[in-house]
Design brief:
With about 220 residues, the protein is mainly alpha-helical. The protein contains nine helices and no strands. It folds into two domains: about 50 residues; about 140 residues, no CATH class. α4 runs antiparallel to α7 and α4 crosses α9. The protein is elongated and about 65 Å long.
Length: about 220
């Protein structure tokens, strides 16, 4: 039970992610087969649908925007601050910080990650590992969106008697950028709202909120 308690947040989000993805696949299959029938085509099975470009492009276009959101937020919060927001460092603390502040090298405690204690490329890589992984997942899912989206787009082109496009042609198409930008704008809005709303609004007990009685213009790290 202690193990479950100590990892409850990741378990909770892992579980609801799996349930939401399953739900998306089931209702997506139903919608896809309705469309198949309306065009006089045979319905497909679950496995065929979840491995199809139609399902992959819908999943990938959401994943890429989510990981882009975190990539940009992690990067921006290194150099940019917002007074009063618990999502921000204290004004004046912009930048990557000193080795002492970051507990690197000789300043690392005995139980610090090994690569935080060593010098050279390993320390540099580990010091930026969160940003690199978020960026890599973003690029991979964006590439999957492009490849699967092209297949889906060409299928629609064929239905309307239009010629197919190659990958570069699809990357320059309104369909690709419509799928991309409609997700990006919503993610940027959500992050911006979280940063600003958390200056003035509170949620008691949440690590994403300042203590309820904290003054609006006090950034979270100022009280630590």
């Amino acid at each position: 039970m202690r193990h479950l308690r100590d990892h409850a947040l990741s378990i909770f989000f892992g579980a609801i992610f799996a349930l939401a993805l399953l739900g998306q696949s089931l209702v997506g299959l139903a919608a896809f087969n309705d469309d198949q029938r309306s065009h006089g085509l045979a319905p497909v099975g679950f496995l065929e649908f979840v491995t199809s470009s139609a399902f992959v492009v819908d999943v990938a276009e959401n994943w890429q925007s989510e990981f882009l959101q975190f990539f940009l937020f992690i990067l921006a919060t290194v150099w940019l601050v917002q007074r009063g927001s618990p999502e921000s460092k204290q004004p004046g603390d912009e930048g990557i910080g000193s080795d002492e502040e970051q507990l690197l090298g000789e300043h690392a405690p005995a139980d610090a990650p090994k690569w935080a204690r060593v010098a050279g490329w390993r320390r540099t890589l580990y010091s930026n590992s969160l940003l690199l992984v978020m960026g890599a997942v973003f690029l991979a899912s964006w590439a999957a969106q492009a490849v699967a989206g092209r297949v889906t787009y060409n299928a629609e082109q064929q239905e309307h008697g239009q010629p197919p496009v190659d990958l570069l042609g699809y990357l320059a198409s309104p369909d690709f950028w419509n799928r991309t930008l409609q997700n990006w704008q919503s993610e940027f809005l959500a992050v911006g709202c979280m940063v600003v709303f958390s200056i003035y609004l509170r949620q008691r007990g949440s690590s994403e909120s300042k203590p309820v009685g904290t003054p609006h213009d006090e950034t979270s790290t100022e009280a630590e």
